[in-house]
């Protein structure tokens, strides 16, 4: 703030230092307070992974592997794309929300949801709402959560398709992560059980080889085989997601996510180091004029509430609650590990968001707006884009725009919306100054594009598996057999239904620019945050019902903030008279234009005009419906909390019974002296054999007196 007041230039290195320092304080003190005082985690209590271990969905997984899986599953498009778009408002509002929001809200939601799901045999968020809040709020939650889940998965898949279409380098490299992961799973399960460090080194070496080989393939005669059209990619994604959602977690899902985490954290870590070495200046204003006016070219809407909706996953994300009540609670070894895996993973994702914000704000603002404003606003030539940018209050010449595209070997950078290309430009700017100079900009740009696709794909396969769990929980209320999540008939049926639902929207969206998931894309941010409100409401209710009323503010305060922000945004999207914001106002304007025989962008003909009218109507109705469902959940949760606070002895919890744990495993990434003594004692009592086989029990988990379990 001193630098801003003095009119000095602000270095991006300050943002990195501020974020890392804040995360260290939040994790060291606040997460420990929640784990020990609020949740009262019990290392002597067996988790579902230990009690229900079946080698398919329930499997005690080494904390390091599970940390990688959980992080890879939650870190999808949001932390990369949202902050880039929010940079339109300036770097300051978004950065403050990313850092403060994750410490006080996002990481809290993830950890608390994981804890309560773990205490309930890994039940899904919607099922927990049904059992703990009541039939009315629970039914609303089940419907809202599942519908929003399908939209989120289809949006994530669309981003992957857009990133990999016609890209042989990215397609080959990402495709190779599948056989590498299968090998890692087999290695840990059969060849060398428990050797996590050993297989990690092998996996990293193979991953780097796949990345380098991808460029060779792209420049060879094999390029055609890996240059896939969007429709072909959709089919491959559907097949992959179905298979990944039904295979045992140790074969593909956990090792692949663990492998992907090395690339994700490695790249972001190197980017942070690059920022410290090059010390780039933040060229975007701290707060832009668009923050107050709300008529920005990238997205319409004022700073409150839309900057919080746009950033989403970097600070608070409802999608994370689905993973925390999906795969992870069925794989965690010890209750004490919820702090590292739940809270720690979210801090890691928040740092990704910080680096995305930095990458967007160190490039020229004129280039930023040229890349992120739609063609309907800036035109399709460098001349028209230059003039449009000048009207925004910034400047960039046509020659500079052409040179920027040429530097990364692209035909054009105009209207490369979605955030990913902008992040790639920022990454290439930093990395090229450290390694290779200007001649390496193209390499680093395409590397970053592929890196983002890998980032998002790992959320897609885990998300599909979580969708399967949710549907099985819902069907289990009708047919008891579905409650056994590893029951093969139900497993295959539920996975097929989930893949078919999001696959339909994706297929239509790829083939019709204004249809399918493109129709629902505007709902992504609000739907995600409404999901967070449901998760926080469930967590707050469970804190009250379990006798922790004095600690209910831990999730209650973030719940109130999220509800106010998201319901305000929902209200504006439904009732705003600005056609750029309000769905029904947009519908009215396009309907009036149709009656007058006019065509308005982005429509190109009358058929497109009618499609826009339909899309606006559907989006408006769904926005209102989702908001109403969440309000029902909040009201019913409030009623349940009041009743539990007044009559605590009458509160009924659907918690699994206590079973003593036979596993010994560290709570954090590195074992403490006390934990090392416990591991040594357990190893001596059991003959020193690590527990289990998959990526899972080994190395650091022992079952006293039990051989290799």
Short description:
The protein is mainly α. It is built from 29 helices and no strands.
Quickly list its features.
709 residues; mainly alpha; globular; disordered C terminus
Describe this structure as you would to a colleague.
The chain is mainly α. Helix content is 68%, strand content 0%. It has 29 helices and no strands. The protein has helices at residues 2-5, 12-39, 48-51, 63-74, 78-86, 91-118, 125-132, 135-164, 168-191, 196-218, 230-246, 253-278, 290-293, 303-311, 318-324, 338-361, 365-372, 375-378, 382-392, 398-407, 420-434, 441-476, 488-511, 517-520, 524-545, 553-575, 583-595, 606-646, 673-685. Helix 25 runs antiparallel to helix 26 and helix 26 (553-575) packs antiparallel against helix 28. The longest helix is centred in the last third of the chain and has 41 residues, at 606-646. The protein is globular. The relative contact order is 0.16. Mean pLDDT is 88; it is low at 687-699 and 704-709.
Number of strands: 0
For the biggest sheet, the summary is: none
Strand % is under 5%
Shape: globular
Mean pLDDT: 88
The end-to-end span amounts to 57 Å
Number of helices: 29
Order of helices and strands: HHHHHHHHHHHHHHHHHHHHHHHHHHHHH
Helical proportion? 55-70%
Q: Specify Rg, calculated over alpha carbons.
A: 25 Å
Q: Segments where pLDDT lies below 50 for 5+ residues?
A: 687-699, 704-709
Overall structural class, as computed from helix and strand content, comes to mainly alpha
């Amino acid at each position: 703030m001193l630098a801003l007041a003095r009119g000095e230039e602000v270095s991006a290195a300050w943002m990195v230092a501020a974020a890392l320092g804040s995360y260290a304080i939040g994790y060291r003190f606040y997460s420990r307070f929640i784990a020990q005082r609020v949740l009262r985690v019990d290392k002597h209590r067996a988790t579902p992974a230990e009690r229900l271990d079946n080698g398919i969905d329930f499997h005690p997984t080494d904390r390091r592997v599970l940390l990688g899986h959980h992080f890879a599953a939650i870190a999808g498009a949001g932390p990369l794309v949202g902050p880039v778009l929010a940079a339109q408002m300036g770097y300051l509002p978004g950065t403050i929300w990313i850092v403060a929001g994750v410490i006080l809200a996002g990481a809290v939601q993830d950890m608390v949801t994981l804890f309560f799901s773990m205490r309930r045999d890994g039940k899904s968020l919607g099922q927990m709402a049904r059992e703990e809040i009541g039939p009315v709020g629970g039914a609303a939650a089940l419907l809202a959560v599942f519908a929003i889940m399908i939209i989120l998965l289809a949006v994530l898949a669309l981003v992957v398709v857009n990133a990999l279409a016609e890209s042989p380098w990215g397609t080959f490299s990402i495709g190779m992560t599948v056989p590498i992961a299968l090998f890692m799973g087999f290695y840990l399960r059969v060849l060398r059980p428990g050797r996590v460090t050993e297989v990690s080194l092998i996996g990293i070496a193979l991953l780097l080889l796949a990345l380098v080989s991808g460029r060779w393939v792209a420049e060879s005669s094999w390029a055609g085989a890996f240059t896939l059209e969007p429709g072909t990619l959709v089919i491959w994604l559907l097949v992959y997601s179905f298979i990944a959602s039904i295979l045992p977690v140790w074969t593909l899902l956990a090792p692949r996510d663990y492998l992907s985490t090395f690339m994700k954290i490695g790249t972001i870590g190197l980017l942070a180091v690059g920022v410290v070495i090059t010390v780039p200046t933040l060229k975007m204003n701290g707060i832009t004029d668009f923050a107050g006016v709300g008529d920005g070219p990238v997205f319409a809407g004022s700073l409150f509430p839309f900057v919080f909706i746009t950033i989403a996953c970097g600070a608070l994300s409802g999608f994370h609650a689905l993973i925390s009540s999906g795969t992870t609670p069925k794989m965690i070894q010890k209750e004490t590990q919820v702090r590292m895996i739940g809270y720690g993973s979210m801090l890691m994702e928040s740092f990704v968001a910080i680096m995305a914000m930095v990458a967007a704000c160190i490039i020229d603002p004129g280039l930023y707006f040229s890349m992120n404003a739609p063609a309907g606003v800036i035109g399709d030539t460098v001349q028209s884009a230059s003039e449009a940018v000048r009207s925004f209050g910034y400047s960039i010449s046509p020659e500079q725009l052409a040179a920027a595209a040429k530097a990364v070997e692209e035909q054009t950078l105009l209207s490369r919306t979605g955030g990913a290309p902008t992040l790639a430009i920022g990454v290439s700017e930093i990395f090229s100054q450290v390694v290779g100079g200007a001649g390496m900009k193209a390499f680093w740009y395409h590397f970053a594009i592929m890196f983002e696709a890998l980032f998002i794909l790992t959320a897609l396969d885990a998300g599909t598996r979580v969708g399967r769990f949710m549907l099985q929980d819902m069907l289990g209320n009708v047919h008891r057999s579905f409650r056994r999540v590893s029951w093969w008939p139900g497993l295959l049926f539920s996975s097929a239904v989930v893949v078919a639902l999001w696959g339909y929207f994706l297929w239509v969206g790829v083939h019709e620019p204004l249809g399918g998931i493109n129709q629902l894309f505007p709902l992504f941010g609000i739907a995600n945050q409404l999901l967070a409100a449901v998760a926080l409401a469930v967590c707050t209710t469970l804190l009250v019902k379990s006798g922790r009323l004095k600690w209910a503010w831990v999730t209650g305060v973030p719940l109130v903030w999220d509800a106010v922000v998201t319901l305000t945004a929902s209200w504006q999207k439904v009732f705003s008279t600005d056609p750029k914001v309000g769905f029904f106002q947009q519908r009215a304007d396009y309907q009036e234009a149709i009656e007058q025989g006019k065509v308005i962008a982005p429509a190109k003909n009358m058929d497109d005009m009618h499609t826009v009218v339909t899309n606006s109507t559907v989006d408006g109705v769904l926005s209102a419906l989702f908001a109403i469902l969440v309000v029902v959940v909040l009201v019913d949760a409030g009623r349940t909390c009041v009743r539990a606070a007044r009559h605590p002895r009458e509160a009924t919890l659907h918690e699994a019974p206590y079973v003593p744990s036979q596993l010994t495993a560290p709570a954090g990434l590195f074992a403490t002296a006390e934990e090392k003594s416990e591991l040594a004692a357990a190893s001596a009592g059991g003959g020193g054999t690590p527990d289990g086989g998959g990526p899972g029990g080994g190395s650091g988990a022992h079952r006293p007196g039990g051989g290799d379990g």
